[in-house]
């Protein structure tokens, strides 16, 4: 097991304004009535847990593909990867509002392409969300030349996809590269021949859960 370098605070920077506003509102209402302020403190606690961003320990293994997100597996299937234009195995992780929402690179690799698509906001657990919802695709090339695509997909409540990776960036497995606010999914497209380690319904954690093994060279 190894702990990837993770130079981020335990509370995601994307949540600082929301947390500050919710705490200030709760404090102001508390000065007037503690009883009335209780719902405001509950909201502040929800914001705090939603934007938590813990460091994780990654399993060892050169060919492992790590989960890019916390959540539940909703798809393991062979499909066509429209972003890298190839047949692929897709593994999808659905995140509800109680999951950690920072997204982390599934493999070591060079960012070959980042592409944003506007779209709808269907429930991210549905299959059609992968191609019809607002989304951001990142195509990675591993050091040994294999292609892995990670797609951030907005959901019914999620209205903001944040991706900090740019074409040419070098990412390490478990490295934070983005964030999605308030419920969503991440689709990972792998080369044919990859061996999934998860099945539909499994709960996974970003970085610490291995989704699959890439095919042997």
Number of helices: 3
Oligomer: single chain
Terminal Cα separation, in Å? Answer: 23 Å
Question: Given the C-alpha coordinates, what overall shape results?
Answer: elongated
Mean pLDDT across every amino acid position: 88
Class by SSE composition: alpha+beta
Helical content stands at 10-25%
* Strand order in space, largest sheet: 9-5-6-7-11-3-2-13
**Strand content bin:** 35-45%
Total beta strand runs: 14
The poorly predicted ranges are: none
The major beta sheet can be summarized as: 8 strands, antiparallel
Q: What is the N-to-C succession of helices and strands?
A: HHEEEEEHEEEEEEEEE
Q: What's the Cα radius of gyration?
A: 18 Å
Describe the structure.
The chain is built from three helices and 14 strands. Helices cover 18% and strands 35% of the residues. The radius of gyration is 18 Å and the shape is elongated. A hairpin with a 5-residue loop joins strand 6 and strand 7. The protein starts with 15 loop residues before the first helix and ends with a strand. The longest helix has 17 residues.
């Amino acid at each position: 097991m190894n702990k990837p370098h993770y130079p981020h605070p335990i509370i995601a920077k994307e949540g600082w304004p929301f947390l500050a506003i919710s705490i200030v509102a709760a404090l102001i209402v508390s000065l007037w009535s503690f009883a009335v302020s209780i719902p405001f403190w509950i909201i502040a606690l929800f914001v705090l847990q939603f934007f938590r961003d813990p460091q994780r320990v990654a399993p060892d293994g050169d060919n492992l593909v790590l989960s890019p997100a916390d959540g539940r597996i909703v798809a393991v299937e062979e499909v066509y990867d429209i972003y890298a234009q190839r047949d692929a195995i897709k593994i999808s992780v659905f995140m509800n509002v109680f999951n950690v929402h920072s997204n982390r690179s599934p493999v070591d690799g060079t960012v070959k392409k980042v592409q944003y698509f506007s779209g709808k906001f269907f429930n991210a657990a549905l299959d059609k969300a992968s191609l019809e919802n607002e989304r951001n695709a990142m195509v990675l090339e591993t050091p040994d030349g294999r292609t892995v695509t990670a797609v951030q997909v907005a959901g019914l409540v999620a209205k903001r996809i944040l991706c900090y990776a740019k074409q040419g960036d070098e990412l390490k497995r478990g490295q934070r590269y983005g964030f999605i606010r308030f419920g969503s999914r991440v689709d990972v497209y792998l080369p044919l021949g990859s061996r999934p380690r998860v099945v539909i319904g499994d709960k996974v954690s970003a970085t610490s859960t291995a989704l699959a093994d890439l095919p042997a060279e």
